Automatic annotation (TrEMBL):
This protein's UniProt keywords: ATP-binding, Nucleotide-binding, Transport
Protein name: ATP-binding cassette domain-containing protein
One function term, GO molecular function aspect: ATP binding
Keyword check for Magnesium: no
Domain ABC transporter: 2-212
């Protein structure tokens, strides 16, 4: 469980988030126009940006301003809108690299193939990441995040750039992740897909958040 308490963010005098309050339990969807502050909010929760004011409480602990590295170890994982895998490594090797946070190499290798299967990439597990389609790259990024064993998964625009068939693959994967008790936030422009998968939806507009 995560609580965002009165979080604001100002970049060079530009107020991007205005006293955002949000409780995250199960999967929360956030939609809203370009530049409304969705990615900034996820970056603050993941420890990649510091809020100008306000607090982030994760599992009862104040984690405001904590480093991204510490937060990953605590169980907060973020999947960026633009996939950035190691292109010269295979799909499984990419997942092994992420698994090394929690496992030794042998365990990481075994679990990497399990994760490939879970995300639907078992047939391309030994292909180089550079050979993957856009849809497969999104699944790989989610697989790499799962390898860190998150309790809270932050998915920034997981459907962007995907045709409907691949977007549905991501929806089905998120359903499987949810059924394992992981909480999360998903941002999206495509509200129909978001409503399919999120337990509650919010709209972000001009740095403010409202149910809807
Ligand atoms: N590092 C930064 N420095 C200055 N301004 C920034 C920075 N990061 C984001 N912004 C600004 O903050 C605002 C919100 O951006 P953000 O990326 O959070 O919006 P978004 O809702 O995720 O948009 P999109 O749907 O296009 O990803 C934008 O005006 C953006 O230009």
């Amino acid at each position: 469980m995560l609580e965002v308490v009165d979080v604001s963010k100002v970049y060079n005098g530009n107020v991007v988030l205005k006293s955002v309050n949000l409780t995250v339990k199960d999967f929360v969807g956030i939609h809203g126009p370009n530049g409304s502050g969705k990615s900034t909010l996820l970056s603050i929760i993941a420890g990649l940006e510091k809020p100008s004011c306000g607090r982030i409480i994760f599992q009862g602990q104040d984690v405001t301003g904590m480093s991204a590295e510490k937060l990953v170890k605590m169980g907060v994982a973020i999947v960026f809108q633009i996939p950035r895998p190691f292109k010269r490594l295979t799909v499984a090797e990419n997942i092994v690299a992420a698994s090394l946070l929690r496992k030794n190499h042998d365990e990481a290798e075994k679990s990497a193939y399990r994760i490939c299967k879970f995300v639907g990439l078992d047939e391309v597990a030994d292909s180089f990441a550079s050979q993957l389609s856009q849809g497969e790259l999104k699944l790989l990024e989610i697989g790499r995040a799962l390898a860190t064993e998150p309790k809270l998964l932050l998915l920034d625009e997981p459907f962007s750039g995907l045709d409907i068939e691949n977007a549905r693959r991501v929806v089905r994967l998120v359903e499987r992740i949810k059924s394992r008790g992981v909480d999360g936030i998903i941002t999206a422009h495509r509200t129909k897909l978001l409503r399919n998968v999120a337990d509650i939806c919010y709209e972000m507009r001009g740095g403010k958040i409202a149910e809807g």
